[in-house]
Design goal:
This protein has 13 helices and 4 strands. By secondary structure, it is mostly helical. It has a two-stranded antiparallel ribbon. The protein has a two-stranded antiparallel ribbon with strand order 3-4. Helix 4 runs parallel beside helix 7 and helix 5 runs antiparallel to helix 9. The two termini are about 30 Å apart.
């Protein structure tokens, strides 16, 4: 597919559907804006369609954890790493987290950079719609992709190796939801940086791979030098993963691990505020 048809389609979709922006009013009166929920619903559906028209990005987001599972998970799935805990039990949260990080740390920033490079963000700013509608719609569309890809991973692992009942533990699901929020804030900040789209692609890929491999999601970090391991303890992605593994495997979570997650709150606030400020300046 050539770049010109993609650009034409993107520009056409930059204008929300008429029924999402306005609704008929009484005869003789001006048209009024549709309710916010209706705007968000239509816009989220539009953004999801646009994201699905990038099959390479969607495929890679799903293929990456599947490749990890095939080449690392399957050969050692049944190995017992602790009493009652298999290797696949320890690896399962990292498979789900890799889907989230891939879409939210790479997919969303690159998508936002594409909007900026084509000036579509400026066009959005001229519409009689609130900026939060776009943000919510984009997050909902990304969340739909995250949920779909995560369910595929769950089904694949469940069919071959089985999943633990802790998968439905409210605490585990709450921490998973918190990691989605944190990754969304960081991804939004990267996508709002006032740099070129190519720089955004390189930066998002570098951050993703450094944080992912530095979290121990792909391979254990035990053989690394002690100084490097201490530095990696402050990797936010590792902090989320450690808590998720402890909750899912039932091995427990230390108090210091919970305290480290508290650092995610001010970091999340800084990412959102800085990203929103840069996005408004651009628009």
């Amino acid at each position: 597919m050539t770049a010109q048809p993609q650009q034409t389609r993107r520009e056409r979709h930059a204008r929300p559907q008429p029924d999402a922006v306005a609704v008929p009013s009484a005869p003789g009166s001006s048209r009024t804006l549709a309710p916010g929920w209706r705007v968000v619903a239509v816009w989220a559906r539009q953004e999801l369609v646009l994201l699905l028209r990038e099959p390479v990005a969607v495929f890679f987001s799903l293929a990456f954890p599947v490749i990890m599972y095939v080449f690392i998970g399957i050969p050692y799935a049944s190995n017992e790493v602790a009493p009652g805990v298999r290797f696949i039990d320890v690896m399962f949260p990292s498979l789900i987290l890799s889907v989230m990080a891939n879409l939210l740390l790479m997919g969303m920033p690159i998508y936002l950079a594409e909007l900026r490079s084509r000036g579509i963000d400026r066009r959005y700013a001229t519409l009689p719609l609130r900026g939060r509608h776009f943000v919510i719609a984009l997050l909902l569309s990304m969340l739909a992709l995250v949920m779909a890809a995560s369910m595929i991973i769950v089904l694949v692992v469940a069919v071959r190796d089985g999943v633990r009942p802790e998968l439905w533990n409210p605490r585990f699901l709450t921490v998973m939801a918190g990691s989605i929020v944190w990754l969304s804030g960081l991804g939004f900040l990267i996508g709002a940086l006032r740099v070129s789209s190519r720089t955004t692609q390189a930066l998002s890929a570098a951050i993703f791979f450094l944080m992912f491999f530095g979290s121990g999601a792909a391979m254990p970090l035990d053989q690394l030098p002690e100084a490097l391991r201490r530095i990696l303890e402050w990797n936010p992605l590792k902090q989320w993963l450690d808590v998720e593994v402890g909750l899912y495997t039932g091995t427990g979570v230390e108090r210091v691990e919970w305290l480290r997650l508290l650092l995610a709150l001010p970091l999340l606030a800084c990412c959102v505020l800085a990203g929103a400020r840069m996005w408004r300046r651009r628009s």
